[in-house]
């Protein structure tokens, strides 16, 4: 399993800074939550996202498919025949975007499952998300960049000089938090300054999720925890005991996270602490 992780990773200065857009109290949680098992039987699940109706979409790297779970827990195959599906996100109009890590492409699916190629010419794209302006953000691992797609279908750098990025979110003040599978978590301030916040991580993974009020959470793919990134660049575990968590999404209730574990193919629920 760790060889597959290495394949994903290889072929997948503290200073005085302005106040962080990342919110959350500074004290560590005394007892991280025990994850609640929801569903198992997934094959290397990575990207996850909910649509407006509450359906959960899961990109399964190992099976080359995207599964959909409805609110009643019923699971179907939404799309198959994919090559290394990794990142997954859903646009405001319900369009589903899936990164093909192995083919260097991002696909676009209608809610009915019709597929088209959204953009090509990438370099091991991993996590996907949308910024506050509605632009698709692509963690382009091999070029150490976060990219977006221009109106004419080209690629434009949003952030350069990262360390094998695999996931990113834009924070409420237009900064960013980036998960680097090759080294740490980068907080990028709106003024361009950076803080490295990954000292407590074994290997940060593609799962980066943010609540509506700006709290950011990142999976420790090389460990057993999901951690909250704090304003001072530190982090704290909100859940422990997972086997290589890799996917992460905020649940529709806004009060919990769902994480997908690569090691046992299981999706768990984690309450978000106050």
TrEMBL record:
It comes from the Bacteria. The keyword Hydrolase does not apply. Residues 1-30 form the signal peptide. CDD domains: NHL. Coiled coil: none annotated. Keywords: Signal. The keyword Signal applies. This is SMP-30/Gluconolactonase/LRE-like region domain-containing protein.
